[in-house]
Amino acid sequence: MRSKISAVVLGLLLVAALSWSAEAGAPAKVVIGHPVCLSGKFAKEGSQASWGIKACIKWINEVHGGVKIAGKRVPLEYKFYDSESKKEVVTSLIERLVRIDKVHGIIAPYSSGLTITGAPVAERYRAIYMSHGGASNRIFQQGYRYAVQILSPATLYQAGTLDMLHKVDPGARRIALAFEDGEFARMVMRGAEEHAKGLGYKIVFKRTYPKKVTDLTPLLSDLRAAKPDIILGGGHFQDGQLFARQMADLDINVKALSLIVAVTLPAFYDALGAKAEGLIGPAQWEFGVKYNPAEAKKLGLEWFGPTNEEFVKLAMEFSGGKRPDYHAAEAGAAPLVFVKAVEEAGSLDPDKIREAFGKLHLMTFFGEFKIDPDTGLQVGHSMVVVQWQGGKKVIVWPPAAATGKLYYPMPTFAEKAKGKKAIPK
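The structure assignment produced for this chain is given below.
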């Protein structure tokens, strides 16, 4: 009984510590915590996320002047620890961030699986929990009050790709689905299947493969027998790279191959070279997208944060000169919208911040931000589709954001081996 009473008392003390309001005067600082994946399976994505967050916090403090609260501007501090891409570490670090570091909001770790793992812990402490790399819709179907999604949900990842291909080649009707057996990828596959059927496509192959797979030859051999026109698949970087490499080894050629996550990373082309030519993939953001103050004004939205060019320049200060990808952008958007919610709430009370989040509709360099006020699911942000053309990533969809035209059908692997590039004439 004593331990239960102690837990209740501790919870009340933590709520009091987190629930700062304007009557108390301005706090000395606002702190945002993050169990970031700097090692383990998601080290590449986690490192990118840290660059983006640091870049936007620097903009907030040095350009915006800090967080405006109680008539003053105070600095935003970033407190982070390496979660090692492990579930048990994520939960313990969230406890530490809330109980010891007294953070005012938490940026979730990368991936849907880790984000789901940490959500109930954040919920228990009434901590705002921002999902920048957890796209699974299921996170926002559990009734969590304090979870907020920054990126587009998983079910919409391949929607733009399907719309684009349907417009370019209405005659290509046969689709194969082959995704990693993980929370995020399964949700992408579910959404892709539903959207494809709605467009009149025929699903001729549907299968998942294990996490940490080392050989996709049996699956790809069966997939070849189904004779698809289009393949949608993938999960994360390592399996996506393996997928494309073994497609080439087996000389399996289709009109279009769209892989989630892996294709968007510069390391994908570094690893595969010419084999990556013509491959496409959905991205949450890409340098060159036309999100800017003028576009926001056209839509009647407030613009907040650095421009795309400013963000990239800032992120490269923390990346050692490496160019950021969408993992950095989606994570960088988290402190931006958090600051806007705090400023709108005029308080660090998590309930008031969450209420403010539900009313926000604005544009940042990452695109539109708007959530379903009841569930926290992202409903404002749109995906883009990129394609590797001549060793460069080009935005090919939607037309309003495109920086080039789609090369279709993609070159065969034999053609690519002879030096053919996916460069439109």
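Interim note for the steering committee: Residues 2-152+288-369 form a domain with the Rossmann fold fold (CATH 3.40.50.2300). The chain has two domains: 2-152+288-369, 156-283+390-417.
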